[in-house]
Each structure stands twice: as structure tokens, then as C-alpha cells.
User: What shape does this take?
Amino acid sequence: MPTTSVFKISSFSIFVIVLLGFAALFAPIIAPYDPMAQDLKNSFLPPFWLGGTSEHLLGTDSLGRDLLSRIIFGARAAVYVSVIGSFFAALIGVVLGLLSGYFGGALDALISRLVDAWMSFPSVLLCIVLAAVIGPGLETVIVAIIIIDWTRFCRVVRSETIVQKSSDYVSAAIIGGLSPLKILIKEVFPNIAPLLVTLLTLEMGIAIVVEAILSFVGLSSSHIPTWGGLIQEGRLYVNQAWWLMGAPVFCIVVVVLAFNLIGDSVRKRIDPVLRA
Amino acid sequence: MKNILEIRDLIVGIDSIPPTWILREANLSIGEGQIVGLVGESGAGKTMVSRVILGFTPEGSRVFGGEIHFCGSKISDLNRDSRPFLLGKEVTYIPQNPMTALNPVQRINDQMTDVLIRYLQLKPRDATKRAVSLLSEVQIHDPEKVLKLYPHQLSGGMRQRVLIAIAFACNPSLVIADEPTTALDVTVQKEILGLIKRMQSSHGTSMLFISHDLGVVSKICDVVNVMYGGQVLETQEADALFSAPSHVYTKALLSATPRYDRPGDLLEPVSDRLVTEMGKTILSWDKRAEACFYK
Amino acid sequence: MFGRYLMLRLLLAIPTIFCVAVIVFVLMRIVPGDPISMMIPPGASPDDIENLREIYGLNKPVLDQFLIWLNGIAEGDLGRSISLKLGVGQLILNRLPATLELVILSMGIAIFLAVTASVAAIRYKDTLVERVLDTFTGVAQAIPDFLWSLLLLLFFGVILPLFPITGRLDPSLSFDPITNFYFFEAIFTFRLDVVWDLLAHLALPSFALAFPLAASLSRVLRGSLSEAMSQDYITLAQVKGYSRLEVITKFALRNALIPTITLSGVQFAFLIGGTVLVEYIFSYPGLGNLAISAVVQRDLPLIQGLILTFAVMFVITNLLIDLSYALINPRLRGR
Assistant: This one.
């Protein structure tokens, strides 16, 4: 029973994630319209199943822009910032986590205190303040993601490095005279890599939400369609045309669930304790 | 003499294929006002006997055969939820480890009075009065103060006294004491044993006393049952058992136990040959049972 | 004894808040760009700009600015909002009750949901009920409060218009409160229509905040409950003749709450951070909504004051959690 359900969940997640990646990569090709092209005569068209036309599958917004095209381009922005943000958050977190876990002592104390202090502050507030400090833009969102989420990686990598450090093969490498840097890169890192995959999957889901939040509040770029921006616009007309908000919300929820489920099943697969 | 509890040919096993047997046609009876001892090494099935009486067979296990009669009515068919009137009122329990058996977040008063309120329909104030007299019965000084305390503020011996008081609170017909002194200091052990005996005789309660310690059993019990491999091998009056054991295993067990009355004797471990022999008996029983319950 | 413990905790909170104040101040000063530029009307002369800097003390050295600000805080003066032209302290005090009502209700709902769900999951272990609850918990935890707000708004505010989706109180109800604690005041003055309307407005935002919190609480609580269920005192409770449900609620639950509070205390404090977006989404006139507009307007004094307020609420929540921990755990309570 469990194997089949994990398989089904994973295939749902993989389907969603592949679709997301596809939309992001080929947005200009797949999107039926220019996401910024206005058509005031055809504003507030409903989706086709609510009496709209097949020309605008998801309908149009207040300026007659095609909602489907805007969502596809929104996916592009979401994936762009999440991938870059997650990557750098992971990079910083892994480097600091490896150093802190491997060398211990004062460095470890310093980094651990920093992580604790960082994590005791509500992240939403932190990222909004931060974005306000830097000013709106896509880069702001990326920086916000990095600054909020490096701690997740750092904490897990640190504790895992401590475990790895006490293992026989690391002792053997130390006796063999390998330098700490080489040990970290060649011995420790490959062993924490599977864990990192899980963290990155979960992180992608979080990053997409952070992106949505910041663009929703108006702290992302206003020149390109973003999911949060679409929600914000849709919120204004929610009583006339709920789908303008409903469609992007649906997309984010599905994507977040997909990343969570895949993170769970990846964890179950690579974690022997959970798998048993 | 009337029997309070009778166990006939009780078979309990873990429901796997083939089942793992825990009790193999065990027989036991407890007469009114008696203290009946149940001795055996660990794994003999002593605790299982108490669990089955209380209706707590561990997860995955079940009763395959045999009957339990309590005061003449058959209770082995009832699951625990359909005999709550028995538990806590008619049948109570003195646990093995007093350090962990009391609820750490409740005052002693609440833990004592709840059964009094529940089963004797006392008002809270009367229940507290009754709790005070119960605590003085178990020789706790300043019972009013103890009632206001939490378990962690009491010593192990004190906690066991409280647990004994709880067990006798509603004048039960049967108290099951599962190694009640094992977790205590040797100095406290003797007092607690004396206390249990006194409480039992003053309340006129029957008692099942489970222990692995023949010395303890010899001091307190009227009748002793020796258990091995899920079977009761021998049932004797305590004096008779110690002076003239009839089963070879009992003999071996006795000569492996230090005797206060015969200080010069050498101790002899139970021989491997005997263990192998008894293992064979058990194996042949298992084969028969398997043929019977699992084809 | 208990009072002294409380005093000690309060005193310890002061350095924490001071640290937050310093960090906030520094963060605000390293902002690239000039906060004053946001409020310059088109066509203002350099003199006008200098004047404005003077008014808001922005022409002084940073350390002086900090000392002035700190001194102000000590005197209960948080400065003046640049965008709203009002005292920051007054603005915050006006909005605080609304947020507190939202926070308290959300925490109450979250605790109720978490306790019910975990007790049910333990009571009906290994049945369909447990699996259904598992799924619900998983989904509730995966979706953050931001998305729950939007989902609830869509489904129960728009598609099924059961609840209002903006504001705090229907303006057509004539209600002139003395305090800003509308809810408590309405209860004390027996304005049941107002209570009802306030609850209707609070329903969606508070459930949105409560769901993720309830899910993470119930995960921890379930773990500690099933741990507690294997303890000896539970066996004794069962032998006393209590039913399984009674054993869970009367014996296991209180014991399980102790580790739950330790492990998830910080989650409660995080709920305060969550109010920011949720209030914004539902146009609920609380601190969070004020914070977003302050951030968008880059209103430095207001942002500083708000973050300080959030930090204080954060510290107080943690304090209350510690206190409830001490209350529930007799070992910590002295005689």
C-alpha cells in the first residue's frame, strides 16, 4: 500500500514540476499572447468554462490582457528567482554549515548563535523589511530568499557534518594526510548531497511562496507579470472576477503542495530510518 | 472455600503465523481472602497472567482458549471496555515501579479521590476524608500534607504506599500486585511487604502476588504457583512447597535460591539438562497447539 | 517565588528588546537612498528639503539620531510618522487592539484544532480517522498562512459569500466604543450584534492564521501524546477503569502538553509575524496592515516603531508561553 501511494504522489509532483519548468523555459513560445498586450474592448472576459471564449482560455484582466499568458510568464519569474535564490541560499548555508560542523569551537559557536538569532525572528516580517530597505525589484526578491533561507541549510548541514566527521572514512582521510578542505569536498560533501536534494526541493516551494508574497506586497518588479502581482490585481476585482485571483492562487497552491510532497517522498526514500 | 478467580487452561499467543505462545494452558485459582503467589523466571508468563485478568493483552496478542471466571462469572469473553465496572473497583493493581506509576501532573489527592468519587459516589470532600484515613492506614505521617503534594515530591517508598492505598481504596475483591517491591530498596521492601500483608488481611481482600523472588513469596503467600514457559507447573501451600517441592523445576529453583532457614547450603544454578528437557516439553505442546489452532 | 520568577523574566526581556531596537535602527540607516526623498512634493526647493530633514532630525549624526530615538522611547515618544504626519505611538496604540484580538482568536482556534485532532488521532489509532487526519495535517502545514488567507477568501468570501472579506466591523452598525478593543467592549456592553459581526470579520483571517499553526502543533502534540500513552501512569489509569478517551484527555494530554509547549512555543510567536500579510489581505485595520503601508511608503519612524512593537509582542508571547509551561508543569512551580 505505501509504495503505490508514494509513487502516485511523486508522479503528481513530478508532473507539476515538469509543467512548471516547461512553462518557465518556453514561456515566450507557449504563451498564446504577449502578457503585457492590452485589449480594452475585451476586458474581464471569464474563463472558457464560465462562458468565455476559447481564444482566452482563462479569460482576461481589467486591461484585457490574457490571463493564461500572464500566468505562464509569472511562472517564469517565479522559477527564475526561486532557482537562483535557493541556489545561493544553499551555497551560503552549506559552506557555513560545513565549516561550522567540521571545525567546531569558536567558529561553530559564532555561526550557531547567528543562526539561532536569525531563526527567532519571523521570516515574513524580515523579508518585507529587507525588501523595503533594498527597494522593489526581482533582485530584491532573490536577496530576500537568500537572506531568509540560508539558515535552513546551515543548520541541517552542520549537524550532518558533525555526524560525518566522526565516521571511520573521515578519520581514515585525516590519518591519510588529506587537508581539511579536501576532506570536506571529497569525503563529507558527497555524503550530505542526498540530504541537500531534499532540502532544495522543500526550499523551492518556500522560495516560490516568498516570491509570491513580495510581489503581492508590491516589492518585486512591476514591469513583468508575477504570480503575487496577479493576485494583488485580482484582489481588487475579486467580487467581479474571482478567477483573476483564483487562477494564480491555484497555481501557487498546487506548486507548493507538489514540492512538499516530493520533498517528503524524497526524504522517505533517502532516509533509511524513515523508510523502515 | 469459594474461589474469587479461576483461570482454566488459558492459552494466549501473539497472533502471527504460526502463533508465538505466551500462556500454554495455564491454570490458576485464587481463594477468598488468600494471597496467591505466582513465581517464575522472567519470560515465564507471570505478567501476562495479570494482563489477561485485567483485560490488557498487549498489541497483536489474543486469547486462543481457556476461561477466566471472576466471582463465578466468565470474564474472558469480555473485552476491557465492557468490564470497566470490574477494573478500579473490584479488581485493582499495584504496579511494579512506583517511580513512574503516578501521574506527574496531578496532586496525590486527585489521584486518590478519583476512584472514590467514581465508584463509591462520594462527594469530593468526603473522598478527601477517606483518602486521609487510607493514607494513615498505609502509615503515611501527615496525610493532609501529602495529599497536596505532587508525586515528584515523594520518595519511592512513599509513592508505593500511596499506590497501595489507591489499590485498596474501594475495598476491591482482588488486588493484583505485580512485583510490587522489585523496584524498591531492600530496606523499604520489608516494610512494604508487611504493609501489603496487613492491608490484605484487614480488608479481607484476595490477592495475586507476582514475583520472581522465592524468598519474598515465601514470606507473604498462602499458596504458591510455580510457572515456567507459560504453564503453571506446581501449585502448593507455601509451607509445603518450600519443605517438599514436587516438581523437578521447583526443586531446582529452590536450590538456586538463598535460604534464610538453611544458611549453610550451597547454591546450585538450574542445570542445562533440565532446561533442555523442559524446552522439549514446551516444543511438543507447541506442535499440538499449532495443529489445533493453525492448519 | 512565582512573582520573582516573573520579574526576572521581564528584566531579561529588556536587553532583547534593546538589541532589536539597535538592529532595526542600523538596518534602517544603511538603506541606500534618502527616506526624505519619498515625501518631497514635486518642485520643492533645496531649502524645503533641508527644512524637512531638520523636522525629522535626519540632518544629525547617526549616533545622535539613535540616542534621540532611544530617549524618546524611554519617554513613550516613538517619533512622528513621515507618511501619516501623526505620532507613531498614537498610531500603534490605535491599531494594536485589533491585532491583539486577531492573534488571541487565532491562537485559540489553533490550540482547539490541534488538541481535537491529536486526541482523535490517538483515540482512533490505526483507523481511517487517523489517516484522514494525517492528510489534513500534511496539507495544512504545507500551505502557509498567506495562501490560506487567499484560499479562504476565495472560497468562503467570494464563491460562497458566507463571510465578509474586508475590514473589522460593518460601518452600518452604530457602535461607538471607548476603547479599541471592540470585541471585549462589545461583550461587556452586551452588543451581541456587534460581537457577531466582529466574529464574522475575524473568521477568515483567524482560521488562515490558525491552520498552519494547528498543523505543526498537532504533529508535536501527537508525538508526545503517543509517547505519554506508553507510560506506567497511563497503565494505572486504565486499570482504574477509565475508558480510552478518558485516559487520553484526563491523563495523557496534560503530560503531553509539557513537551509540546517546549517544542512549539516559538510557533506561537511566529503567528504574530503572520498577521502582517493576513491583515493586509483582508484589509483588517491592525498593525500588520499599517506595517505594509509603512514599508511601501518607506516611513522610517513608523517602521522602527512597528518593528519594536512586534518585538515586544514577540517577547511577551514567549514570556506567556514560559509561564503557561510553569503552570502546567508542577516541577517548575515551587510549593
